[in-house]
């Protein structure tokens, strides 16, 4: 199917509550934002959990179970649970919710990266004591995703039929995917998510987008679905450039807090509607959740533990 899958990353783990009053924190807020994003056209919902008291990222299965059943009951969207978790989480913590719930799709970071948000530490008046040191610590933070980590995540989830949104911040991460394909641990159709514009990763410019596409084509031929997103101000330009080259797209408040220059997005659905309008004006068709399941070879919504 030659249709564009829209993913929505609803809350993430790097933005902090003081950056935007619209960032969904509580389970009910995450559920409400997710349901509205699905109704706006998102076929995939990429989900993290947060401590409802202070907004800090949490791996708690109990918190995930406070919003996932609502989303599952109210939408046909594909539930995609993070295995990246949040800074400082162990692999065991990052796998708690994915293993318990066995979703159709999980994110999978394909290499180590130093995602730097430390420049933002002096830009806000923070509500919670944890926020400033959390951001400052990203100057020396390595998001650890070694070959062993990646293997353990795949081996924990693939037997239950979960497939992966493979997040690639660098060209080398594509070769890591190829390594696991060669070992027989990953099989097509692959969902490859190019991540552009994160400090510490590949730049968000047309050359980077083309290089990602060219390299993935060489490595995987037609055995993959390509998606991409741009961080912060790069969100809509990168998605638009990628879509013109045949990609699917990801938006959401995890990736950017804004809807336009200087204006905070009030909901995730607002970003979904904006990229959907751009795509449709370019003559592109939006994939439904059922079509996305077929394109990605997913096990189906009835095969998850909710």
Automatic annotation (TrEMBL):
GO molecular-function terms, A-Z: 3-keto-5-aminohexanoate cleavage activity; metal ion binding
Cofactor list: Zn(2+)
Alphabetical keyword list: Metal-binding, Transferase, Zinc
Residues that span the membrane, as ranges: none
Keyword Transferase found: yes
PANTHER family xref list: 3-KETO-5-AMINOHEXANOATE CLEAVAGE ENZYME, 3-KETO-5-AMINOHEXANOATE CLEAVAGE ENZYME-RELATED
Protein's name in the database: 3-keto-5-aminohexanoate cleavage protein
